[in-house]
């Protein structure tokens, strides 16, 4: 209690220093210089008995439900090709967390229980529960009920099979903090602060409200970092004397507000700087209580619900070996990957676990986090994971992390040094970042040089910053845009919707949270020609009317070079190599559905046909 009080007093003195370090990096040096005297001062504070009087609990905790089996803070994630994880918290330990589910809301005929009881960590009032559902049919609506004497039925769409070419949308939401007394504000203008402590999705509360109101328009959310902003507890003066509880109260409120969304849609998380410790003040993590440093809440909350990676469904043996290596090297929830329809999505950790990582040991933020893997584990993972992608199965490769290296604000140079070459080498299509509290879109770029092809089949990745979701720190202004910055908005709360239109076209939009308007829209064309296949989208039987024969022929002619792949019926592969519309039930789910034709077969059978437009058409229509 006493140390808590000291922490409050300490923060009163140091909060302005935090603010200054954000704008003046030299302050960090000053803090470094003053560290020893500050620590001595704190030790003295701890010894002062009169401070015991200052402990007054003030945190804005949500009410604890009378029924302590009541699930709160529900969160889903894609856990495997046919698997969803369901995480939730309770205010009492549950011996055997269970979920009932089924494909009809009034017949939840299946039940899965966790093999372990719920867990918690110091300073938390709640317990984490996780159940993993497996063997789900792909792309199917399931109804589920967390087993409790006080729970209701919700539903989710099970993951689309890797390789399924059905168009879908995802949202990228980053830097989204709590609403209410300890949260969301408009920079420097407390009068506009939203004071409603809990979120009714029917109300408009910018991003959370918009995500709730449009919940049927997207299939999952990626959120690479900065949740809740619990470490900003001291920005509400009322919290100064009860930081430990204020930190937890903000987490409870935020994840309760998020539950209508994260309990319905897979919500894929990776870490940001605001997950690191009880406060973002350099050198002070040692003052944080156990449970409020080293990404503890983040790790407990998402560690058992995020996937490691998917086994490859490619027929290419080296792709399978690499995907297995990546799975071994993954460290969820810090770095991992998953596949969904046409997309392979990698979540990375820009905070710790690479050279000069900002929140790592000795990093520039002095937050003393991690490491969470062995030396080089994260980069070895990323390399193996990106190398394993078979673009005939998942043509789109997205990498999402917290700190950007392309921004008109403050770039993360160590992040660029660690990651950029890998993204470029392996042909990543889109990099999604946040951290800067605004929206920005860049032309495809490598080494700060824009790709000459622009959005028309570039080799370099396109990058966005989607950090404008809204939090207690407000938006960050952009003064001068980089020359390859195509769109910048520092005035509207926003998030990004990424639309996987088909195997060659990806649409990236920024949505204004308040109005729902599309603020900016751009389309990236990628031929993905190394192994792009014929561009006929499973699931089969496909409708040939939906395929533009000219476009199909053109793409095929470009795509079918030696080593490329083509989706065909397995039974016909050995004999006539005809495409048929017979229905293989699970495209891409087993090894059989994507065939790599040997260069010899291609030269003998396929290439002559491709060169003849009529025969090519015949092949498509066979
Ligand atoms: C049951 O759950 C609802 C919704 O989460 C909550 O508002 C209510 O307080 C709970 N009831 C009891 C008895 O705990
Ligand atoms: C929410 O916003 C929409 C569009 O801006 C508006 O039409 C509607 O009345 C608002 N609802 C509430 C409850 O404020
Ligand atoms: C943070 O947690 C990780 C994983 O438990 C551990 O390996 C690491 O040593 C911890 N770092 C600190 C500074 O405690
Ligand atoms: C892919 O989508 C783009 C944009 O909507 C469209 O122009 C193109 O024809 C589509 N390609 C196929 C094969 O459907
Ligand atoms: C198989 O995969 C490896 C690694 O991704 C790649 O280098 C190689 O070109 C692929 N082989 C074929 C025939 O596609």
Automatic annotation (TrEMBL):
Residues 71-153 form the Purple acid phosphatase N-terminal domain. The keyword GTP-binding does not apply. GO terms for molecular function: acid phosphatase activity; metal ion binding. Residues 216-438 form the Calcineurin-like phosphoesterase domain. Its EC number is 3.1.3.2. It catalyses: a phosphate monoester + H2O = an alcohol + phosphate. Keywords: Glycoprotein, Hydrolase, Signal. Residues 460-521 form the Purple acid phosphatase C-terminal domain. InterPro entries: Calcineurin-like_PHP, Metallo-depent_PP-like, MPP_PAP, PAPs-like, PAPs_C, PAPs_N, Purple_acid_Pase-like_N. It is an enzyme of class 3 (hydrolase). PANTHER family: ACID PHOSPHATASE RELATED (PTHR22953), PURPLE ACID PHOSPHATASE (PTHR22953:SF153). Belongs to the metallophosphoesterase superfamily. Purple acid phosphatase family. This is Purple acid phosphatase. The lineage of its organism: Eukaryota, Fungi, Dikarya, Ascomycota, Pezizomycotina.
């Amino acid at each position: 209690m006493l140390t808590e009080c000291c922490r409050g007093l300490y923060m009163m003195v140091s909060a302005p220093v935090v603010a200054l370090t954000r704008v003046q990096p030299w302050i960090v040096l000053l803090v470094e210089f003053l560290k020893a005297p500050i620590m001595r001062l704190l030790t003295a504070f701890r010894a002062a008995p009169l401070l015991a009087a200052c402990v007054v609990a003030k945190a804005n905790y949500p009410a604890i439900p009378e029924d302590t089996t009541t699930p709160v803070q529900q969160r889903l994630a894609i856990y495997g090709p046919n698997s969803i994880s369901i995480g939730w918290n309770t205010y009492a330990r549950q011996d055997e967390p269970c979920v009932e589910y089924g494909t009809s809301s009034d017949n939840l005929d299946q039940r899965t229980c966790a093999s372990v009881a719920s867990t918690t960590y110091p300073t938390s009032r709640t317990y984490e529960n996780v159940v993993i559902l497996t063997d789900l049919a792909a792309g199917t609506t399931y109804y589920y009920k967390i087993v409790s004497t006080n729970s209701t039925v919700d539903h989710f769409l099970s993951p689309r099979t890797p390789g399924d070419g059905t168009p879908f949308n995802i949202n990228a939401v980053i830097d989204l903090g709590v609403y209410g007394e300890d949260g969301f504000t408009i920079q420097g203008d407390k009068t506009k602060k939203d004071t409603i402590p809990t979120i009714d999705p029917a109300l408009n509360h910018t991003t959370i409200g918009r995500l709730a109101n449009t919940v049927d328009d997207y299939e999952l959310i990626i959120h690479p970092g900065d949740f809740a902003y619990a470490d900003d507890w001291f920005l509400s003066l009322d919290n100064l004397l009860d930081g430990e509880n204020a930190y937890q109260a903000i987490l409870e409120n935020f994840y309760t507000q998020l539950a209508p969304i994260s309990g319905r849609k897979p919500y894929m998380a990776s870490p940001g700087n605001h997950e690191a410790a009880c406060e973002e003040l350099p050198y002070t993590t040692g003052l944080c209580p156990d449970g409020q440093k080293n990404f503890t809440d983040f790790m407990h909350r998402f560690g058992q619900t995020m996937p490691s990676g998917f086994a490859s469904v490619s027929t290419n043996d080296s792709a399978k070996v690499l995907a297995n290596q990546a799975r071994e090297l993954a460290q969820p929830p810090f770095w991992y990957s998953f596949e969904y329809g046409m997309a392979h999505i990698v979540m990375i950790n820009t905070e710790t676990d690479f050279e000069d990582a900002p929140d790592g040991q000795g990093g520039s933020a002095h937050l003393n986090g991690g490491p969470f893997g062995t030396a080089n584990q994260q980069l070895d993972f990323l390399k193996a994971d990106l190398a394993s992608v078979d673009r005939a199965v998942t043509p789109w490769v997205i990498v999402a992390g917290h700190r950007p290296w392309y921004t008109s604000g403050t770039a993360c140079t160590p992040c660029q040094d660690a990651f950029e070459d890998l993204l470029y080498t392996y042909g990543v299509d889109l990099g999604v970042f946040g951290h800067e509290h605004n929206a920005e879109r860049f032309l495809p770029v490598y080494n700060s040089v824009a790709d000459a092809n622009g959005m028309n089949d570039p080799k370099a990745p396109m990058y966005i910053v989607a950090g404008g979701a809204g939090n207690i720190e407000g938006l960050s202004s952009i003064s001068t845009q980089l020359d390859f910055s195509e769109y910048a908005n520092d005035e509207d709360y926003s998030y990004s919707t990424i639309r996987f239109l088909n195997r060659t076209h990806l649409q990236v939009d920024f949505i204004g949270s308040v109005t729902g308007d599309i603020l900016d829209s751009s389309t990236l064309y990628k031929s993905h020609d190394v192994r792009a296949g014929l561009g006929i989208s499973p699931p089969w039987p496909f409708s040939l009317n939906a395929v533009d024969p000219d476009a199909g022929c053109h793409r095929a002619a470009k795509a079918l070079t030696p080593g490329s792949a083509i989706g065909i019926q397995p039974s016909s592969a050995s004999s006539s190599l005809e495409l048929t519309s017979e229905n293989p039930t699970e495209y891409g789910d087993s090894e059989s559905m994507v065939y790599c034709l040997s260069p010899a077969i291609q030269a003998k059978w396929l290439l002559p046909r491709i060169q003849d437009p009529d025969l090519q058409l015949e092949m498509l229509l066979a």
